[in-house]
């Protein structure tokens, strides 16, 4: 009778390490871009072994795609500010954590450019997790202003919902200038409100 060997089980995988590694990936990606990023950098930032990373992700591209897919939106669509005016609602969203989050996501998006060319599906993932959550918030607030008669019914909701995200990305990536409260309010007062509100 042949004896069947019992397989040896390795150490149980720790899910918390996955979160640490994915967060470290996003941090390194924002700082160096995809081409400059290495698995060694991520492992060092996450205080994990290089082998630990490779046991979970076969390649740098797989790791980055998973990290971007796991990004969480900072806004809860069910508890958005409702001040009674579009300006009040938009300004109420400008808090230090949200500014920092927008800057970080802008840098992450910039770091993904070279990979998006090789992995087209990543563009959809990045849009869903990085840009769409904030666009969705703006869309809701602008539509709410239309519904209460404050904003013009014919204003271009989709275009206006994109404005702040696009300008923050340009300022962060191209001009290399930090985003602050005054800049965000200037977008609201100088672009969004004149285009949206009734004359």
Task: Describe the protein in words.
The chain has two domains: 15-69, Homeodomain-like (Arc Repressor Mutant, subunit A); 77-196, Tetracycline Repressor, domain 2. Helix content is 68%, strand content 0%. It contains ten helices and no strands. Helix 2 packs across helix 3. The model is unreliable at 1-11 (pLDDT under 50).
Condensed summary:
This protein has 199 residues and is mostly helical. The chain is built from ten helices and no strands. It has helices at residues 15-36, 39-46, 50-56, 60-69, 86-92, 96-111, 113-118, 121-147, 157-173, 181-196.
SSE order and pairing:
Layout: H1 15-36, H2 39-46, H3 50-56, H4 60-69, H5 86-92, H6 96-111, H7 113-118, H8 121-147, H9 157-173, H10 181-196
Helix pairs in contact: 1-2, 1-4, 1-6, 2-3, 5-10, 6-9, 8-9, 9-10
